[in-house]
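Recap slide: Endonuclease domain-containing protein, sequence and predicted structure.
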Amino acid sequence: MVGLQDEGSSPPRSGGEVARAKPETERGNAASSSRRSPDKIMRARSLRHGDNMAEATLWNELKAKRLGGYKFVRQMPLGPYFADFACRGRKLVVELDGSQHAESQYDRRRDEFMRGEGYSVLRFWSVDVVKDTRGVCETILAALDGRLSEDTVASDLRFVFAISKTSKVEGS
């Protein structure tokens, strides 16, 4: 038949499915504006490989939609920062902090930046994740389900609430 390729022929030279199967960063598609630069991808990967015990413990609870069916990602680039864990669908960032973060002005600037991007931020002490994983997960679920809806600061947690654009319209 005319126009049919032999079964043993190679893929078309134009790239076709072979080119589309590669991630955008490997295709070299500079014309499109990707939110993921190769530098940010490499940095996020290195952060994921440097998990501490608390991050590994929490990730085990969050991955594969295990927590209430919500999808989380790790080390998501957000502007100049990387969120430890993020649920894009509910615009929630979960950060785990060690003692070096106590009263950190840098973290407050990060929180305000993320809030400006529409993300609420939940901060836990790493030790609390290891000691009380269930309690931490219940608090995350409360934020995801909308049961936390105002800024909250306690000795074991900090929640910075971001009012979504749709909430502003509904509440008006």
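The helical segments are 16-21, 24-27, 38-49, 53-62, 105-116, 126-131, 133-144, 165-171.
The CA atoms of residues 78 and 114 lie 7 Å apart.
(End of recap.)
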